[in-house]
Each structure stands twice: as C-alpha cells, then as structure tokens.
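Here's what a typical entry looks like (SAM-dependent methyltransferase):
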Amino acid sequence: MESDQIKRRVQGQFGAAAESYVTSVSHAHGPDLARMIELARPRGDERMLDIATGGGHTPLAFAPLVAEVVA
C-alpha cells in the first residue's frame, strides 16, 4: 500500500471518530484530567505545551491553573 493510501485510510478512520472525542463527557471530565493536574501540581507560573492530546480537554483543564497554554 502506498503512503498516500495509508494516510487517507488513517485520516478516514480517525476523522470519523474525531467529533465523538470532542463531545465525550468521559474525555472532558474524566478522572484522568484531575489526576494529571494532581501529579503536575501547577503553581500558576508555568507554561503548558499540549502536543496531540486529543480534543483540547487537557489544555482547557490546565488553562486556569498555569500562566500560559500553547496548543
């Protein structure tokens, strides 16, 4: 299979499910977000870099707790 074909198949597979991730209550308010914040122990002066964590739930959870979020 050619790389363009693989790319189209991957985009089709994940693109079809993308909206579900964004609107998912368990992703937006799951215990994993609270646990990440607990482990990170933000002081309020940090910058947070979000790299491909999904539908934006992680940076949104951290935004009020850090100085800056780059997503």
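Residues 24 and 30 are 10 Å apart (CA to CA).

More examples are in the samples folder.
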